[in-house]
Design brief:
Elements (H helix, E strand, L loop, with lengths): L8 H31 L27 H29 L4 H23 L4 H32 L2
Length: about 160
């Protein structure tokens, strides 16, 4: 069976987890724009103050940071910082051919921890709660990266 085929349960698991994380990251962009349009503020670029049908009454205060928008931007920044690591580490992990159940637990565990981190951040929960969900995801990322590293090291050193 081809390793990079959706017929392979490991790769299908990766595909589902990766797609969910990408949908989440793209969703954050849409949520940011929605919030900016809702309050007509939180803009970042001076050209956003040009009079248009979307912004018929521009005002310099629209460029001021707005917590309603900035909270979502911080969540999106977290996605942009972590998503590339997940996508690469998870793909290398799947290529190392772990047992399916372990792969499902780790990959879906990462998705769940990321969604819980989002929910905690979005609803302004304590730092401790956010940090707990982030830590779970971070530990999973370390395992995802360490597994193929260990397999490749064994292969190089011992031809296994």
């Amino acid at each position: 069976m081809d390793r990079l085929s959706l017929q392979d349960p490991l790769f299908a698991t990766y595909t589902i987890a990766a797609a969910l994380m990408i949908f989440k990251a793209v969703g954050m962009s849409w949520l940011t724009v929605f919030r900016m349009m809702k309050i007509r503020g939180g803009f970042r670029s001076p050209e956003d103050l040009r009079k248009t049908s979307i912004n018929p009454h521009p005002d310099p205060s629209q460029l001021a940071p707005n917590e309603y928008v900035e909270r979502v931007r911080r969540i999106q920044l977290n996605d942009l910082e972590n998503l590339p690591f997940f996508l690469v580490a998870a793909l290398l992990f799947v290529l190392a051919r772990p047992p399916l159940l372990i792969a499902q637990c780790l990959l879906y565990g990462y998705v769940i921890s990321s969604l819980l981190h989002f929910a905690a951040y979005f609803t302004a929960q304590t730092h401790d709660m956010r940090a707990t969900f982030w830590t779970v995801g971070s530990v999973i990322l370390i395992v995802l990266a360490a597994w193929p590293f260990y397999c490749a090291l064994l292969s190089v050193l011992y031809g296994i």
